[in-house]
Amino acid sequence: MRFEQDSPLPELVKTIPHVAFEVDDLPQALIGKQVLIEPNSPSSGVMVAFIIDDGAPVELLQIQSHQTAGMEIASVYEN
Fold this sequence. Notes:
The chain has helices at residues 11-15, 26-30, 66-78; strands at 19-22, 34-43, 46-53, 56-63.
């Protein structure tokens, strides 16, 4: 990936390739980890965070299932 010079991302993310893993429960997966980038939602139904593992950045993603997303949408229309 290429980053603009003034990118706010940590140098570790900009300079070291990273792997990404999908997790079922992002807050649970972050317990006891060194968090590099706090949980955030880059797009609807997706939560991501970066941790440092053995000196390397690792991306953790929690992707909302279609079934769960549908239930949330349904609850909005019920109100």
